[in-house]
Structures are given as structure tokens and as C-alpha cells.
## 1
Amino acid sequence: MSAPRHPLHLAVALDGPRPAGPDDARRYDAEHYVRLARTAERGTLDFVTLGDSFGRPGPDAPAVLARVAPATTRIGLVPTITTTHTEPFHVSTTVSTLDWVSTGRAGWQADVSTTDADAALFGRRPAAPPAEAWREAGEVADVVARLWDSWEDDAEIRDRASGRFIDRDKLHYVDFTGTAFTVRGPSIVPRPPQGRPVTVVDATGTDDGGAEALREVAAAHADVALVRADDPQTAGAAREELRARARAHGRDPDLLVVLASLPVELDAPGDAAGLADLIGDWHAAGAADGFHLRPADPARDLGLLVDTTVPVLRERGLLRRSYPGATLRAHLGLPRPANRYALAREAS
């Protein structure tokens, strides 16, 4: 196994049981997630994730994290967005807006829907098989990145004297044709602060027929791939496979951050110290570049993680004590991508 980068990356899922309340009103209250994200930020974690689905009650994950953004300063914010039945243009503008609101701390986790119940909510087409849904998700990830590049960084002129707001030569049509959609572009939102917000894919294989397509999407388009495994050997093998697939797509495999996604349940500070041992052992074995932790109860477990596990990891030199920059890409050690259309224009 190739040696992972140091120090390790650490992220946490905010999904879990909500606090009990007298009625359903609390499910619409983002303050619960604000408190959790602030706790994660105190532990200098790279980012938090928030799952979503079409049937989930309350505001969608991007809306919740848009509320969290102004209440935090450094933590990365990664909502799940289901690409099936969702217009790629809306995916692009939603994530771009979150990146602007958070001043460069946004990402998104791509997911798909293959249920008849979700398809019935939209009524446009029947549910797709998993492999087909993931191939479409790959096309969405591709065109979303193109839409983010459709405005060059200096496309905005804002010259009141001449009345020119935009340099039209620095706006570009993406003219993308996929299997299920076409997108002309350009975007209606300027290029995000990060250039391209971070794309996350849970690359764990499934038995529903979509595993191969899922891994290809992760290798071709993800900045961060999540791998669920029961032991470091399985996680390390999955990491090496994803890196090899990324290389086959012409990518630098060192620009694909692979995190082992682990469920955790911390009933007591003994548990949290043991988690530090597990993380250290897996990381030393080359299992992953870091970890995406999925607490059973974030309201209980996250505080123990930050107050007990994080200090041990810092003492062992595995986890930073402060953020290296202001953007999610900086946290992850990923460069800000050059604009493909600007490069093509300069080369012509």
C-alpha cells in the first residue's frame, strides 16, 4: 500500500436522532446542527456531512448547512444532493451558492435514488436501475464542474462608468449532452470561491448492481471518496483500487483523498480513547488518508470525540492543532483547480 498523507484528515457525519421535542417543529430548527458543527470546528475537523433524501422531513441538507455557514468560520460543509430527478443546473447553483455563503468551505456528496416512491414524487420517468443512476450521477458531476468553470474568475467587471458588469468573452457555454439531459450554460452564478467545491462520493460497493458504476464515478470525479470497511486491510485495498482507477482516468491519484467511513458509539471517555488507538492503527497500516466518522448519536458522541479523542491524536502528531487555511480545499491539501475554459482560451 502507498503511504497516506500526514497528518490525517478527519470528518464527521451530523446525521442521527434529533433532540426530543413537544411537536415536529424542532425538525425545522437548524440550531441543532449549528451546535454540532461548532463542536466539530473546535476539534479542527476537516468537514461535516449531512445526509438527505427526497422523503426526509424538514429543510433539505443544503438549506440547513447554509444556515450553519455564517455561524461557523472554518469547518467544511458537505450536504448530500441526490442527482436522480434533480436538474444538474440546480445542483451547480445550489453548491455554488453554499460556497459563496461559507466563503469557500462547501462541498457536496453525490447520491442517487432508485425507488419507485421517489420517482412518483416527480412523475417524469420511472425509477432507474442502480448502475444507470450512478452513470447519470457521473455525468452530473462532470457538467456541474463545467458549469462552475463557465465563468472565468475575472469575468465580473462591475464598471459603473461604462455600464459593463460582465466580460462576455469570459463566460462560456458548456454545451453538454448526456444520456438523460443536455445543458447549454453558462451558469447564472459566478465561479465559486474554491473554483470547484469539493465533490464527495461514498464509494462503498453494494450488491444492487451499481457497484462498478459507483466506483467509476468516484475515481473519475470525486475529490474525496468514502470507503466503509470492517478492517484496515479491506479499507487499504479499496483505497489502492480507487487510486489505480483514478490514474487510469488520467488523474493524479494523490489528488483523491480516501477516507475510511466508520460507525462510532462513544458511551464513555474510555471509548473515545480507544477510538484514537483504532484510528492510529488503521492510519499506520495505510488504510486511508483519514476517517469519516458516523456517530450513533452526534449530540452525545461528538463532544466526547472532540474533547477526548482529538487531544490524543494531536499528542501523537496525527491531527493538526489549527486549520491550515480558510477553505475546504486547503484543509484537504487540494489545490484550487484552474479554469478549463480560461486555459483553452489562453492556449488558442
## 2
Amino acid sequence: MDDLELGEQTIQEANILIVDDVIANLIVLTEMIRKSGYVARPVTSVKQATQAIEATLPQLILLDISMPDMDGFEWCERLKKDAKTRDIPIIFISAMNSTEDKIRGFNLGAVDFISKPFEHEEVSLRISTHLKIHRMQQELEMYNQKLQKLVKEQMEKIETEEKNLIYAMARMCEARDKVRENHIENIGKNSRLLAMSLHFSGLYEAEISQDYIDTIELASALHDIGKIFIPDNILQKKGKLTIDEEKILESHTELGAKNLSEAYAQSEYNDFLKMAIDIAKYHHEKYDGTGYPMGLRGKEIPLSARIVTVVNMYDNLLRDYADKGEGAHIEALQRMKLEANHSLDPDIIEIFLKIQRQLKR
């Protein structure tokens, strides 16, 4: 059975709630609805109607305006405010036929009016029309949900492929630099954790959003992407570098930013690339202005770079103090405390120390 046939079957099996305190009207409408092939559910009050809805949701409601316990307008308004019943089509039935009543009814969410006395063909036609419209709206909503799910799955697939490509590029640098295993993953996870903690601390609530947190985890992986352009004899040298070699090594910040900028020029609305550029270029800047390549000071350094500078120093210190075993973590934190207001942003260090037990290492 195809969707069209299923829709027609659903319409023919539709149950219609009739709410009218006049018994004669209920009898007439019930007979008309049954002859049209639908299930009629007559009730004489809003109280009974509410109980009927709790038992089984109707596909359509015929609602009298003038009733003793609560008028139809008020009950319609309540139904439209309830998520469970707001999509049920409501047709007002009334001897009142003024333009003001109709406008009020439509404003409250009714889909139509049927005036008394009732004509079978008119009642049948209006009910059939609105049941079909309601069914089409439901099918459209189901289609939209399926479409949104499909788009989301495709976007997640693309995002996963992009992440894999970015991490592959970052690991190329990691392999050449012979840095400690899992350095990139540690930087990403700890940058995310620190950014999230800064947001919740209230210090950077306006600057750090959920998108920012997701972005910095990925963008931080490219902080040393510029090292791919540094010769092996400098990058892998075991002894102390000469002054000239130091300058060449330091150029990895600008080389990385330059190459990322060329990609950004083709996609200037890409927040990920913009943050990756800032991190690659400025993650060796120091809070007191003695860093490189620009000698930026304090808040002149982009926030993303200040965050990565902290987690990068922590991970590098763990490598330097690896021979101390479990004591490496304590030694690294002690050293970083001394760097507050020098290499590191003191506000960020304060939050970093509060979350130090949760850090990936």
C-alpha cells in the first residue's frame, strides 16, 4: 500500500469529536458524519470533550461556540496552547454568523465555520477537505523530519572526513618533529576543556560559545602546521640551535598562518580556518610581550592562542619532566604558576589550575 492509499485509509477511519450542548444538533451531525464514512464521537460539554481527548485523540473537532460551562472560543484557545492538541483541526459550528465571530475564531486557530442549520453535503465536504489538508501537513512534517535527519547525517559524515584530514595533516608534522605521542589529541581535548571552563567561569561568557568550544578542539591540532616547512636538520637537531636556526624554527608560526590564510581567502566565512590561523601564528606570543612573531602583549593576543599556549606548555612540560613519573604533573603545574603574567594569561592560568585534575595527559 503506497502513502496515498494509506492517507486515504486514515482519513476514512478518522474519528471526529462533536462538542455541542444541544442534543438535537448532536444527533443531526452524528448521522451526517457516519453517512460520510467517519467515526462520530458526540459529547455535550467541554468536560466530556476533555475526557474523550485523553482517551483517544480525534482527527478533527466540531466545536459549538455557545456552551454553558466554557464557550468554544476559550476552549479552542486552550487546545491550541497544548502541544498535544494544537495541531488538531477545529471547525466552529454556530448559529452566530457575524464577521467578528469568524475573525475571532480564525485568530484563535480554527480552520473553518459551519453555520446552523446544517446541510449534509456542506458538512461532509468541509470535513473531508480539512482532514485531507491535515493529513498533507502531517506527511509534510514527516518528510521534513526525514530530510533533516538525512542532511544531519551527511553533514556529520563530511565533518568526520574533514576532521580525519586535519588530524592527518597535523600528524605529519608530529612525526617529523618527533614530539611525544598523543600530543595533538592532548592539545585538542585540553583546549576544549579549558575553553568550556572559561565560559562557565563567566570571564569569557560572551566570547566563548558552544561553536567556539567545538572549533578550538579541532583548530588547535594545527598549531604547529608551519613546522612542515622547517628543514629536518633544524627540526630534529638534538643539540642547541644556533641563533639563525632559532629564527628559522620560529618562522613556523608565520609560515603556518600564511598557508592557512591562502585557504581562508577561498572561504572567508570559515570560522574554523580563522581560529586556526590565529592559533598557528600567535601560540608563541607571551602575555608580557616578549614572545614571537609579533611581540603582542596581554589581550592583544587572540583568546584562542592564549588558551592553546597554556595547554601546549603543559603538555611540553610533561614531556620534559617525564622521568619524574607521576610527579611530572605537579612539576609542570608549579612551573606554569611562575609563568602567570609572563608567558601566560593569569586569568586563564587561574581557571586551568582549578580543572587540572580533569586534564588529559
## 3
Amino acid sequence: MNTITDIYGANMLQRSKKIWLVLDSSGFGGIESHVEQLALGLSNAHNRVSVVFLKDYGHHPLESRLLFSGLNCIMLDGCITSLRYFLKKETPDVIHTHGYKAGILMRPISRLMGITCASTFHSGEHKDGKLQWYDLLDRYTAFLANHVYAISSPILSTIPCTAKLTDNFVSIQSLSPSFGNQVAFVGRLSKEKGPERFLYFAKIFPLIDFHLYGDGPMRKQLERNGPKNLKFHGLQVEMRNIWPNIGLLVVPSRSEGLPMSALEAMAHGIPVAAFNVGSLDQLIQHGMNGWLVKQSDLTSMASVIHHWNESNENQRAQWRKDAITTIQERYSTEKVVPQLLEDYATSAK
């Protein structure tokens, strides 16, 4: 398999850049997973990458993972003076923001300092209260970046300036296929992710083992109502040793972009059963590498779970192969990172 270096050839080292990936984060979710994959991909392409946390909220699982992989992390204290100090000290060639706080803050600073800036938009669901105003400010200042990306077509449609679609991606190096039998949910336990729907499926299939990996505001309520065949595992900082136990990933979300959990599952050969939201219709080929169900059609989703549970090994082997092939051909680090590097090389939109 070609590496990113193979794709670019010997000239890559001459084009090495100092890149900051900036976010404001206190937990681990889709954005953090995306930043981790991006940092690893850019570093493997011989760039000098630092992941910059705008504020230190205490021990952060992403910091531990990045340091374990030999990547540099900068923890700021939330003050502009600290940011200015590290900007002058590090003088990055490129700043790539993730999340509204990082985007709102870093885009004008990058413009003033003449630093190439990119911003990725990860969220498209409706916001309430203060978040609604921050979200609007984030989108209406996006034009200050040199390059603007959205991880799904619905999110792209909400950005009022020139932007382009760029898929989420995962590394496929050193991954082995899963031969597990768990029916699993992986994600934040919040309304937009629909975890109570997963609980409903567990109740109507009492002889199937359901496993829920994640934490969030709905956890206590779900645990109170969960059946005996549903096991709560809580937040998982590292899924590497868990994916091999999963046979089917269920994505019962009300809204999505392009969930990293679905990409990671399919990279391990795990088919995905999902409601048709966000850009999942670009990822999943119904009946081949997974199944797409009309939003809120619980009966059809239950039929998919039953179909998978009754399938034989030959059927599962084909789904496994198709899922892995999908990631290799479009959603791998080796496919996406070179495109970003080409963008970074130009400061004009």
C-alpha cells in the first residue's frame, strides 16, 4: 500500500510546513477524533504538527493519545497574551481551526499576521441560546480563512462563503478486520444522536447483546430504563481494542455530518446501519457495506438488525470486504491528506 510519502515523492520534505491544528475542547468526540487523524496524517507526511488547545481544562484524553504517538501539544490558558507568545515563538506556516471558538478567534489573527488559515466546519444541527449566536458568528466570519471546509453537504450548505466539501477520514494502516458479534452504539449520549432509539431496539431483541459506548447528558436516564441485554461501557478514550468485538454499528442519529464512528467501524470491516442523515448516504451503499433507513423509521431499522443477526458468515464476509474497500478508496488518510496539503500550499482561496 502506498504511503503519503510515496504519493508525493521525494519533494515532500522540501515542502514541509509547520502546522497548527487549533481547537477548544474539554472532552473527546467527533471533532477530537478528526483532529487526531489529521495530526497523524500530516505528521506522517513529514510536516511539523502541533495540536493547540486554546484552554487547559485539565487532563485531556486527546493530549495523551497525541503524546503517545509522538506529536506535539500546546496547552494554552485561554488568554490572548499566551496565544500571542506562542504564535511569535512557533511562527506556524498554517493554522487549521476546528470548532467555533477556534475559528472565531484564529481567523482574524491569522489574517493580521499573514498566516495561511483553514477552517473545518463539523456541525450543522440547529443551536439554541448563546450557541446559536456563536454559530452564526463562526459562519459569517468564515470568509476570513484562506480555505473553508465542511465535512458533509448539509453543513456545506450553511456556510455563507466559498467553501468545499472534504470528507472525514481515518488511517487504514495496521488495522485488522473485526469478526465480532456485538450490536453497538458509539457516540455521545445526547438527543441528536438518538441513543434512546438504540435502547428501544435492545428491548425488542432481548436475545441479542447490545453494547453502548459513550457518555453524555442522557446516560442516567438511559441506564434507568435500559434492559438487561444492554451493557453501558461509558466513554472510551481508545476504541482500538473494542472494534474487534463489534459486528454491527447502529447510528440512530437525528442529525449528523459524517460520523467518525461510522468510518472507523467500516475501516474494520463492520457494516453500519444508519438513519439517512447528513452525508451518510455518500458513505453507505444500502445492502452492500451497510444499510440506510428513512429517518425515524424504527420498524425498518429493526428489520435491518434482525437481517444482520440472522446472516451467515459468507454474507458477513462480503459486507466486511465492501466496508473496508469503501474506506480505502475514498475515506482514508492516504486519499484526503494530500488534497489538504495541496490547499495549504496556496494562500489564496
